[in-house]
UniProtKB/TrEMBL annotation:
Keywords: Signal. Residues 1-26 form the signal peptide. This is Argininosuccinate lyase. It comes from the Bacteria. It comes from Zavarzinia aquatilis.
Length: 112
C-alpha cells in the first residue's frame, strides 16, 4: 500500500492508493475519490466549508490518473461534513465545488 500523509493547519489526511484501508476512528471522514475524467488530477484541495483558505494539496507530488480512484481519510478531529473542493488538472484547468456533504455521499467523483 502506498500512502501520502499531509499535515497542515490541524488537518491530517491520508490518501491510500490501494483499496485496502484499515478501520477509521469514529470522527474520521472517509470517502472514495473517483477521477472519471480523461485527464490526470495533479492537485486536490479539501477544506471545511467555513474555512476561507484552501488546505494543503492532498496529492502532494503525486497525481490521480484518469479513470482511477483512491480512498481518502480525513482525520482532523472536526465534526463537519460540509467541504469545499478544488481540483486542478494536468493542463492547469481548475474546478471548484462548494458545500459538498462528504458524509452523505461516501464518494466524490470528478467529472468532465
Amino acid at each position: 500500500m502506498r500512502a501520502i500523509p499531509a499535515l497542515k493547519g490541524g488537518l491530517f489526511v491520508l490518501l491510500a492508493i490501494s483499496a485496502s484501508a484499515g478501520p477509521a476512528l469514529a470522527e474520521d471522514l472517509t470517502f472514495t475519490l473517483n477521477n472519471a475524467t480523461g485527464a490526470a488530477v495533479t492537485e486536490f484541495y479539501l477544506s471545511p466549508a467555513n474555512v476561507d483558505d484552501w488546505e494543503e494539496n492532498l496529492l502532494g507530488n503525486d497525481a490521480l490518473p484518469a479513470g482511477t480512484a483512491t480512498d481518502v481519510t480525513v482525520a482532523d478531529g472536526r465534526t463537519t461534513c460540509l467541504y469545499d473542493i478544488k481540483t486542478v488538472f494536468k493542463d492547469g484547468d481548475e474546478v471548484d465545488d462548494r458545500g459538498i456533504d462528504l458524509c452523505q455521499l461516501g464518494a466524490y467523483t470528478i467529472h468532465e
